[in-house]
Here is the input.
Amino acid sequence: MGEKLTTLHALAEPNRFHIVELLRVGPLTVGEIADSLKLRQPQVSKHLRVLSDSGLVEVQPIANRRIYKLQSQPFLELEEWLDTFRSIWEDRFDRLDDYLKEMK
Amino acid sequence: MTVENKTNQLTSKVEGNVLVLERTFNAPRELVFKAFSEEEHLKRWWAPGGWTMSIKQFEFRPEGVWHYCMKCTDENQEYFGHESWGRAVFHEIVAPEKIKSVDAFSDAEGNVSEELPQTQVTLTFISEGNQTKLINRAEYASADDVKTVLDMGMLEGVTMTWNQLEELLKEMK
Here is the structure.
């Protein structure tokens, strides 16, 4: 639960959420992100630090540039967690289906 | 935008921050509604296998409280001995068509958990001859990070990713 809360907290800030959406398409530099979102570079760097501290993005230094890309693990965990709701009801409906036969 | 998933007879789709589950049962609407509205019936199917269900309070009327406990009594299961308390408040009941409630996790005294999200659930029972289509719409109701993220379309994004993953796995086979 703790890791998911970290992921959710990091994503709950609209600018950070937009950064993540941008990075879905492919890795980008701070400058490219700042241009796309019309934000100042220091502001973007601050958000990227939160995102990388919570394991959502990683940095790759290429030559003198730093490229940011998404990490899949936290998203897979979040998805698994959201999917539990679905599977709880799936099992529950199976039991109801059997029980309705008894009720008839 | 809507993303659909089909597993067995269950259809699930995401509409914004609302998760919609649909399933058709081979029983008339009155009977399906009864299974949800009477304590003695609910007890028999609500909890997972190996878990026993005890109902502490069941007031099936608007603003009525349903407080229950599911306990794992199967020693072969990971959660053996574990108790899970739930507390729901009914908001609208139209027999045999609709039940609206807010569901929360709670403790034995009925205090609602502040940490875990609450969901607003609408169950709709649609009569289709001798069958009944049941629609379960669930929306996160508490104002926390979970709701904020889902409101921004995270659930849709996640479901889409999941579909893409399935496609990818098919290609990999």
The interface with chain A takes residues 7-10, 12, 19, 21, 23, 25-27, 31-32, 34-35, 41, 44-46, 48-49, 134, 136, 138, 145-146, 148-149, 152, 154-155, 157-158, 161-162 of chain B (CB under 8 Å). The mean pLDDT of chain B is 82. The CA atoms of residues 87 and 166 of chain B lie 36 Å apart. The longest strand of chain B covers residues 83-94.
